[in-house]
């Protein structure tokens, strides 16, 4: 098959299904087809992702290709002037960017219902959400529109949609992948990662995008192993920890059963598992929403109607121009978080909220460190339930936030976590198994995930 054929297939599939899935916000058809042709002519098959059609979450900068963060504020941001580091790396390995993918506005959300365009839907059942915020990234892969996609994960936004859509999603260790060119939500938590159909594909993409980058001060100078070489299928002697909090009340019985079955598979492969405790995980949701909203309130201050995006036309002085651009440009959830974050950071409240949350974050990280003294991986469900219905939680932010309870601790601790499909609910929706590893030990996470697949 030629790259031209492969890319044409991608657009054909998008044409067939995307008016129901709404995974894409922007297509790159003319450029992608021209690039495919050029690749076919060059025949440089040495590149590790040669000719692979990819979709990119719309908060990752793509030079010359519209990047909106699914926000009205950036609706007219047609031409980012540079590529994110991950895009430079993927382009060096000759991918073809098919288009930009739907998400919750500025990556704030768990259902895609916060997209300021029509939100993406779950390809398994379009009455259900695909998850969020990287819902378009997971849906596009699940629906066969692209071979792989990139998402970003601040509190679960790669793993939760991967679980809801029955695909593989990896949030790497904080610092593993450069954030240069990722529109910042909460800088101490954000990581970019791959969403794919298989663990092997996932390992292959992370191999390309990982590594130190001088353009991101938090990017770690740690060697990147060949993740594809860790897929040995050998988990004999692997020590698995299963936090009791991850199978507690609130976790749906079908999800529990699927996870227990997965643990039986690991036993049959020679691994062992034991119940452990992450005692501070009950504070994770509150801690996360405090810290992430605080960071977001600072990061989103740059959207002032001057430098990027849409400027209000109704203001007659500068201060009103800032105010009106922000009140017209941002959606409801984004405003809610900016207000929460601004409050938490204001003098007089900083110690009581922000500083306290930072301390709890350390306790949550210590919980993981302690477990990893004795175990190789932590396993549990990715989400408490399979994909919920469109409209089911959108009017109740606290219920929506509670859905992130199993993914958020991983971001707070900075460790890597993957979601792999582990079964289906009775009504035919996928269930995700979450495998969490030590800092910078994505290799063991991939090996564990691949042996199960
Ligand atoms: N659902 C979480 C939130 O709304 C996580 C989002 C994310 O990881 N970007 O913040």
TrEMBL record:
Reactions catalysed, as given in the entry: L-glutamyl-tRNA(Gln) + L-glutamine + ATP + H2O = L-glutaminyl-tRNA(Gln) + L-glutamate + ADP + phosphate + H(+)
Record-level GO cellular component terms: glutamyl-tRNA(Gln) amidotransferase complex
A single BP term in Gene Ontology: translation
Gene3D superfamilies given in the database record: Amidase signature (AS) domain
Enzyme class, spelled out: ligase
Active site: 57, 133, 157
One Pfam family, short name: Amidase
Matches recorded under InterPro entries: Amidase, Amidase_CS, Amidase_dom, AS_sf, GatA
Molecular functions per Gene Ontology: ATP binding; glutaminyl-tRNA synthase (glutamine-hydrolyzing) activity; transferase activity
Function: Allows the formation of correctly charged Gln-tRNA(Gln) through the transamidation of misacylated Glu-tRNA(Gln) in organisms which lack glutaminyl-tRNA synthetase. The reaction takes place in the presence of glutamine and ATP through an activated gamma-phospho-Glu-tRNA(Gln).
Matching PANTHER family: GLUTAMYL-TRNA(GLN) AMIDOTRANSFERASE SUBUNIT A, TRANSAMIDASE
Description of how the protein assembles with itself and partners: Heterotrimer of A, B and C subunits.
Name of the protein described by the UniProt record: Glutamyl-tRNA(Gln) amidotransferase subunit A
């Amino acid at each position: 098959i030629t790259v031209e054929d492969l890319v044409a297939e991608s657009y054909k599939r998008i044409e067939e299904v995307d008016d129901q899935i709404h995974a894409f916000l922007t297509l790159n058809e003319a450029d992608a087809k021209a690039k495919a042709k050029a690749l076919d002519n060059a025949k440089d098959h040495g590149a590790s992702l040669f000719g692979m059609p990819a979709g990119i979450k719309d908060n990752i900068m793509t030079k010359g290709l519209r990047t909106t963060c699914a926000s009205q504020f950036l609706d007219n941001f047609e031409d980012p002037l540079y590529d994110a580091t991950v895009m430079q790396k993927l382009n060096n390995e000759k991918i073809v960017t098919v288009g930009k993918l739907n998400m919750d506005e500025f990556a704030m959300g768990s259902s895609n219902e916060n997209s300021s365009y029509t939100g993406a839907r779950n390809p398994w059942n379009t009455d259900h959400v695909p998850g969020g915020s990287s819902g378009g990234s997971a849906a596009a892969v699940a629906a066969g529109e692209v071979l792989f996609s990139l998402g970003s994960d601040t509190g679960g936004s790669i793993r939760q949609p991967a679980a809801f859509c029955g695909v593989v999603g990896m949030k790497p260790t904080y610092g593993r992948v450069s954030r240069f060119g990722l529109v910042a939500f909460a800088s101490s938590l954000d990581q970019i990662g791959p969403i794919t159909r298989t663990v092997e594909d996932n390992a292959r993409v992370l191999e390309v995008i990982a590594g130190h980058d001088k353009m991101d001060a938090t990017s770690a100078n740690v060697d990147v192993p060949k993740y594809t070489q860790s897929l040995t299928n050998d988990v004999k002697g692997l020590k698995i920890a299963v936090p009791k909090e991850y199978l507690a009340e609130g976790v749906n019985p079908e999800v529990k059963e699927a996870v227990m079955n997965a643990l039986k598979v690991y036993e049959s492969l020679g691994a062992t598992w034991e119940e452990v405790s992450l005692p501070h995980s009950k504070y994770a949701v509150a801690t996360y929403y405090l810290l992430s909203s605080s960071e977001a309130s600072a990061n989103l201050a740059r959207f002032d109607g001057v430098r990027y995006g849409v400027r209000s036309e109704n203001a007659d002085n500068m201060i009103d121009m800032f105010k009106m651009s922000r009140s017209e440009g941002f959606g409801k959830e984004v405003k809610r978080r900016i207000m929460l974050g601004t409050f938490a950071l204001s003098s007089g409240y900083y110690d009581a909220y922000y500083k306290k949350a930072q301390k709890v974050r350390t306790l949550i990280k210590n919980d993981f460190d302690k477990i990893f003294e004795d175990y190789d991986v932590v396993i549990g469900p990715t989400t408490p339930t399979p994909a919920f219905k469109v409209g089911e939680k959108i009017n109740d932010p606290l219920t929506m936030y509670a859905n992130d309870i199993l993914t958020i601790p991983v971001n707070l601790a900075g460790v890597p976590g993957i979601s792999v499909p582990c079964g289906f609910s009775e009504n035919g929706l996928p269930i995700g198994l979450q495998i969490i590893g030590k800092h910078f030990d994505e290799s063991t996470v991939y090996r564990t995930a691949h042996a199960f697949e």
